[in-house]
């Protein structure tokens, strides 16, 4: 009877957790990234520019069941309950007890980002779920070494990779903790079948020229900055709660792993923290990239607290009170009291104001994916972003919605001298203009070959280029509203240097599916000697579009 009562207490806490997250999901304003993932769910695919497709499936299923916030977040709320249940199953003691139950929920709730991903929809939500599922499968595999456990490994590994690419680290660190897995044919079988399940995603990457891999491995590399290195550990304190993380570090230092499974937990925590600290040498590290550590952190702290009264007292006296601060922050999230720059309030009014001017016309933004995503979420109307060399590419570059708006009226929401009008709606101001015939150049393809990779500043460059139009609409280089200019571009970090070019024959129109070849002459600008990326861009009022591959060249002086 006592066991049953303790089980009921666990179920009560789990139910309260679900209800709290459900209310938080309903009343906390949608973030820009969530609106973006909501669009993923409307256009299901085997892959997306930024992430694998699991997040799209979650928002798609949520939208089938609900509208509004829950149309994006419901599966997130539900999935975290599954994450908690798998994590609970992984604890050493299978018995329900008061200490175990209370410590479990205190520690889980104290991990700030783990708690947040119970109501905010991101790819980290399924990553956490499948991390817990994978560890459950691995624990079963260690105990049984059976084909049924191997099947669980297969499903969990495929689910991990379909959730987020950090999955490679989760699987990799577990394997490193137990290299004997590589001699087990059942483990190899699980991995091979998982790869087969992942083939649709790999084919999607191949057919789209591997956009996700290029983005994460190349585009996000911005070079070394001391700020990136120094901000890493403070950010981790925020992600994991400084009081909880301090206890984790103490346990890792004080206690040796007592089993192969606990050794995997240690490898995951230490491996993730060190790996992403090292990646800070090449660019900014998002704080939440280490959130998969939450699962092993919960496990080691609960298990050790059941063995050591001092650890248990620390959890009750220090970590438990910190939940009051987390609760206060969660309450603030559903109010307009937090600064709007944090992204949890004040957005609806802006996009509703734009809608009142645009009416039923699609709205074209530039620079960021956030604007069209939020506009679509709040108004249920079409929007798109035109990217440029000054902004990163996104899933919108794969969707190419702008091709649907050719020769149709749209509202262009951007500042453009001589064209844009300032609109005011209460305290909201924005600029834009109505256009009856929009023209963009993002889909045009420029190919060239430059043999000489070391150039002297001031030298002339002569080469041949081909300009192709794979779209279904013509491009008018002398368009009355959106004229087009061809430029050479030298890129160093975020700095762009445009150079005029002289064509062997001018271009006025580029018909659908037409390719024109021209000889081009330009000059190497006066720039500091260094390595630059060189290519060609079509320059319009939307900015300089990415039309060619970029090649590395070295600029040097004549000295």
Describe the structure concisely for a colleague.
The protein has 559 residues and is an alpha+beta fold.
Can you describe this structure?
Helix 2 packs across helix 19 (370-379) and helix 9 (167-177) crosses helix 15 (260-279). The chain is of the alpha+beta class and 559 residues long. The chain is globular and about 80 Å long. It has 20 helices and 17 strands. Strands 7, 10, 11, 15, 16 and 17 form a six-stranded mixed sheet that branches. The longest helix is centred in the first third of the chain and has 26 residues, at 2-27. The chain has three domains: 2-205 and 224-333, no CATH class; 346-435, no CATH class; 445-556, Immunoglobulin-like (Sandwich). 50% of the residues lie in helices and 16% in strands. It starts with a helix and ends with a strand.
Low-pLDDT sequence parts? none
Question: What's the mean pLDDT score?
Answer: 92
Q: What's the helix count?
A: 20
Beta percentage is 15-25%
Gap between N and C termini: 89 Å
Total discrete domains? 3
Can you count the beta strands?
17
Alpha carbon gyration radius: 27 Å
Strand-pairing-aware structural class = alpha+beta
- Global shape: globular
Helix fraction by DSSP (H/I, runs of at least 4) = 40-55%
| Main pleated sheet | 6 strands, mixed
